[in-house]
Amino acid sequence: MLTLGELERSVMDILWDAPEPIAATDIRDRLDGKELATTTVLTVLGRLESKGFITRDRGARPHLFAATTSRAAHMAELMHRVLGTAPDREAVLARFVGQVSSGDAATLRRMLDGK
Q1: Which helix (H) or strand (E) holds 51?
Q2: How far is CA 75 from CA 3, 6, 56, 62, in A?
Q3: Who's near 71: CB < 8 A, 6+ residues apart?
Q4: pLDDT at 18 over 80
Q5: Which long-range contacts (CB under 8 A, 24 or more apart) does 81-90 make?
Q6: pTM, entire model
Q7: What pLDDT score does 113 carry?
Q8: Which residues have C-beta within 8 Å of that of residue 22, sequence separation ≥ 6?
Q9: Rounded mean pLDDT of 43-58?
Q10: Which of the 8 DSSP states describes residue 68?
Q11: Cβ within 8 Å of residue 68, ≥6 positions away
């Protein structure tokens, strides 16, 4: 999975939080602190679509956009990608586990025990 730029992340956050597919103008209106033209938002949406992050319902007018995967799935993919590039996976995992909170450690233990 590809990475996201700052504006792409902002758009994806809106799509991930949306309970249903939404139009580009609605996305534009929800971009806090950013005064962008609808054409700019459509350009970003086109990039996200070509990267496989979103789908576009071309039958609807206006077109409606939705994320193809969840925020959690995207974050997990990023973590796997970083771990996959590490020459010493064990060292990276040890460092990661050594820095998690006790609550996160308990969650990890519970998940690993259930696997």
Answers
A1: none
A2: 10, 15, 22, 30
A3: 12, 13, 16
A4: yes
A5: 81/1
A6: 0.83
A7: 92
A8: 14, 15, 64, 65, 66
A9: 96
A10: S
A11: 52, 53, 54, 55
**Residue 2: its pLDDT value, please?**
64
Rounded to 10°, the helix 89-99/71-85 angle is 130
Q: Which one-letter DSSP state was computed for residue 57? A: E
First to last CA, the chain: 25
pLDDT tens track for 53-106? 999 999 989 999 999 999 999 999 999 998 999 999 999 999 998 999 999 999
Helix and strand numbers (H, E) in the chain are 6, 3
The top-level CATH class assigned to 6-67 is mainly alpha
- Domain ranges in the chain? 6-67, 71-114
Surface-to-core class of residue 5, CB atoms within 10 Å of its CB (0-12 exposed, 13-18 middle, 19+ buried): exposed
Give the dihedral of Cα atoms 64, 32, 45, 57; nearest 10 deg. Answer: -10
The amino acid occupying position 5 is: G
